[in-house]
């Protein structure tokens, strides 16, 4: 990648595509050593940031669907429901890259590694093949995007009535998760979630300030404050939760409009 190395390339290869040949060559000869693994958490963090717009895209799809559901345009809602797998596929790509980076990080901690690009591509192919083997139900219908969509669209016109069974009437118990109404309250503050963060491991959600404060006071780790959970929580496994944030925002908006209606009738 240095100027001197590209000067070493035989002239017949440099016609028009110097950069491609030299970069390829450089990458193949480059040896990753264990100290390189120290930069991996940054790369993984970058991927987490890249996942945020995907959550937001889902948020916009859901908002539009709720508007349409309110005005009983069910066909349009179904079109939007049909967009969810494409969003989940994007998220999968990022998750697969994270898995592969973590594997490579472990590998180079043990021994130096040649041909990192080749190894990366091979592992990505394997991750994607594993993903393709999953059924649509495992990939999409159990995904929080899908269950959130189903629950929220249903609640739009049915309030607190329980969501009916989904179209898959088998005994897959995990699907029951989709019926649990997701939390809008922080178990620590007992008030609405503020800047919600969710544990990557146990999926419980807290107000960021409250849980960070608790973790700080307890030297970096606490048992999950959610009753009956017990998973160890550190700041490393907490992730900003855009979906929870917009859930709270929607709830507040509904309450504000109910309050307005009440004020209107209380005037006389
Ligand atoms: Zn928990």
UniProtKB/TrEMBL annotation:
GO terms, biological process: double-strand break repair via homologous recombination; protein sumoylation
Protein name: Zinc-finger of the MIZ type in Nse subunit-domain-containing protein
Similarity comment: family membership: Belongs to the NSE2 family.
Entries under Pfam families matching the protein: zf-Nse (PF11789)
Pathway: Protein modification; protein sumoylation
InterPro entries reported in the protein's UniProt record: Nse2(Mms21) (IPR026846), Znf_MIZ (IPR004181), Znf_RING/FYVE/PHD (IPR013083)
Keyword Nucleotide-binding: no
Gene source species: Phascolomyces articulosus
Keywords: Metal-binding, Nucleus, Transferase, Ubl conjugation pathway, Zinc, Zinc-finger
Subcellular location per the Swiss-Prot or TrEMBL entry: Nucleus
């Amino acid at each position: 990648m240095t100027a001197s190395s590209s000067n070493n390339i035989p002239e017949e290869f440099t016609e028009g595509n110097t950069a491609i040949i030299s970069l390829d060559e450089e990458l193949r000869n480059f040896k990753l050593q264990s100290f390189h693994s120290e930069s991996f958490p940054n790369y993984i963090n970058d991927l987490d940031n890249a996942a945020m717009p995907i959550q937001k895209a889902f948020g916009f799809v859901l908002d539009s669907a709720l508007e349409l559901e309110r005005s009983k345009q069910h066909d349009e809602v179904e079109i939007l429901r049909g967009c969810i797998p494409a969003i989940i596929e994007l998220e999968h790509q990022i998750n697969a890259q994270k898995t592969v980076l973590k594997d490579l990080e472990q590998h180079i901690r043990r021994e130096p590694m040649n041909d990192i690009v080749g190894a990366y591509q091979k592992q990505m192919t394997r991750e994607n093949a594993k993903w393709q083997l999953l059924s649509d139900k495992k990939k999409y219908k159990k995904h929080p995007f899908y269950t959130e969509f189903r629950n929220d669209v249903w609640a739009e016109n049915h309030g607190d009535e329980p969501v009916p069974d989904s179209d898959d009437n088998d005994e897959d118990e995990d699907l029951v998760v989709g019926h649990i109404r997701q939390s809008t309250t922080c178990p620590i503050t007992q008030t609405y979630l503020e800047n919600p963060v969710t544990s990557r491991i146990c999926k419980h959600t807290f107000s960021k300030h409250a849980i960070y404060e608790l973790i700080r006071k307890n030297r970096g780790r606490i048992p999950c404050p959610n009753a009956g959970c017990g998973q160890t929580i550190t700041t490393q496994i907490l992730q900003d939760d855009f979906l929870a944030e917009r859930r709270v925002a929607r709830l507040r908006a509904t309450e504000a409009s109910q309050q307005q209606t009440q004020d209107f009738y209380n005037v006389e």
